[in-house]
């Protein structure tokens, strides 16, 4: 066992004493003994100091080694498997099963987690290629633009009305009558559910537009515009016969438009007396209004309430015949954000003439709506476009069919319910 510093000190002291005794016995000359004793003592102190420094260096070295050596990895317990009914969606691995979709090519088959746990901003789309009359598919469009195949839709499916988790409501229009089906998005099984719309839906079975606080639903129907709330159904008494509701402005108010007479086209002229109104959501009566002049944006189509305000497709008042027809699209329109009655300014959309404002869906930081390759009444492939709410940049999420045929493509779509 190694000697401790105290043992060495005692040993050197004994050796020095023995040396002093032997020198004294030899009767050295004056001065020799003191000088020798001094040398021995200095040597002893040097040896002790050297040994102490050596021990200290060893201690520091061991401590440094202990600091430098990485801590051993503690095995982590295996993660608990996700429930079989709702696994967390993950990117599709390489070699995943694909399905050939006419007009789009091979698409990755969506799994249970992709459909049931779809991220905010995901869209379920009904797709039909022009060359495949009875081949209609349900597709999942992720917020990042990835498109997955879900299931085949019922024969004759033309309109997607609702999507909630693992099921969707699809309407099919055959030779006899319209039919509504509830489609299982995992198996493709379809069950007819009739055409009874019920409270909270429009007369064509579409879900109403929920208020920002979630307490009421705006429903447009054949018998007028109503608000369904916790206290029942309230029919709105709009300011005039040529008024319409655009959408929710806030939890207590709606944005609406009126004219003094029916407009000849989709957008009125300044002579038609167009006005924009802030309507009470309980009664429908106007609480504030503002007249519109030539060039002011007139809301057309539906709207969607986003984090930056109420976004709606709008066209200038006093539109010319080149801009609009009696029943055709609004080619001179642009997306406009309204803050109450005040338009906050149009989004700098670079493809506004191709956008269709009849249906809009909100996604984080974006608005989704349909688009076309050109502004025309003729049938043409429809695409799904995303418009950035800050920059106005437009990106195509679901393109037109790749075979170049006229018509179809995107038939309808809904956001996550």
Characteristics:
alpha+beta, 26 strands, globular, four-stranded antiparallel beta sheet, 3 helices, 417 residues
Describe the protein's architecture and organization.
Among the domains are: 1-25 and 32-56; 95-196. It is 15% helix and 38% strand. Strands 5-4-3-26 form a 4-stranded antiparallel sheet, with no helix packed on it. The chain starts with a helix and ends with a strand. Residues 1-6, 22-41, 43-92 and 196-205 have low confidence and may be disordered. By secondary structure, it is α+β, with helices and mostly antiparallel strands. A hairpin with a 3-residue loop joins β1 (98-101) and β2.
Question: What order do the helices and strands come in, and which of them pair?
Answer:
Elements: H1 5-25, H2 32-68, E1 98-101, E2 105-108, H3 112-116, E3 123-128, E4 136-141, E5 147-152, E6 157-164, E7 167-173, E8 178-184, E9 190-192, E10 209-210, E11 216-221, E12 224-229, E13 232-235, E14 243-250, E15 253-258, E16 275-280, E17 286-291, E18 297-306, E19 309-316, E20 334-339, E21 342-346, E22 355-363, E23 366-372, E24 382-388, E25 394-398, E26 409-415
Antiparallel strand pairs: 1-2, 3-4, 3-26, 4-5, 6-7, 7-8, 8-9, 10-11, 11-12, 12-13, 14-15, 15-16, 16-17, 18-19, 19-20, 20-21, 22-23, 23-24, 24-25
Helix pairs in contact: 1-2
């Amino acid at each position: 066992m190694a000697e401790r510093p105290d043992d060495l000190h005692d040993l050197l002291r004994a050796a020095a004493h023995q040396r002093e005794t032997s020198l004294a016995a030899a009767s050295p000359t004056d001065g020799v003994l003191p000088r020798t004793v001094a040398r021995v003592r200095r040597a002893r102190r040097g040896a002790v100091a050297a040994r102490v420094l050596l021990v200290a260096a060893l201690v520091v070295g061991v401590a440094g080694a202990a600091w430098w050596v990485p801590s051993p990895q503690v095995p982590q317990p295996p993660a608990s498997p996700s429930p079989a009914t709702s696994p967390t969606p993950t990117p599709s691995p390489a070699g995943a099963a694909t399905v050939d979709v006419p007009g789009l090519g091979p698409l990755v088959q969506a799994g249970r987690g992709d459909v049931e746990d779809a991220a905010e901003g995901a869209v379920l789309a009904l797709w039909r290629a022009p060359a495949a009359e009875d081949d209609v598919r349900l597709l999942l469009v992720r917020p990042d633009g990835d498109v997955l195949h879900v299931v085949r839709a019922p024969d004759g499916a033309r309109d997607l009305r609702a999507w909630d988790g693992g099921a969707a409501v699809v309407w099919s229009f055959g030779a006899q009558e319209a039919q509504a089906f509830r489609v299982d998005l995992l198996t493709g099984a379809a069950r007819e559910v009739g055409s009874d719309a019920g409270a909270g839906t429009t007369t064509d079975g579409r879900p109403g537009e929920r208020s920002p606080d979630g307490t009421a639903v705006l429903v447009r129907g054949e018998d007028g515009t109503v608000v369904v709330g916790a206290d029942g159904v309230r029919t709105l008494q709009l300011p005039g016969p040529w008024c319409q509701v655009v959408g929710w402005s806030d939890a207590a108010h709606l944005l609406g438009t009126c004219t003094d007479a029916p407009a000849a086209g989709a957008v009125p002229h300044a002579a038609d007396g167009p006005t924009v109104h802030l309507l009470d959501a309980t009664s429908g009566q106007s609480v504030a209004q503002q007249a519109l002049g030539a060039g002011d944006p007139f809301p057309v189509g539906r709207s969607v309430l986003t984090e930056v305000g109420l976004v709606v497709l709008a066209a200038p008042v006093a539109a010319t015949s080149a801009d609009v027809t009696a029943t055709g699209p609004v080619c001179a329109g642009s997306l406009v954000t309204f803050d109450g009655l005040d338009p906050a300014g149009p989004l700098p959309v670079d493809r506004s003439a191709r956008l269709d404002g009849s249906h809009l869906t909100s996604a984080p930081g974006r608005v989704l709506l349909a688009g076309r390759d050109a502004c025309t009444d003729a049938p043409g492939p429809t695409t799904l476009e995303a418009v950035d709410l800050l920059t106005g940049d437009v990106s195509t999420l679901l393109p037109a069919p790749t075979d170049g045929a006229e018509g179809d493509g995107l038939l309808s779509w809904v956001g996550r319910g």
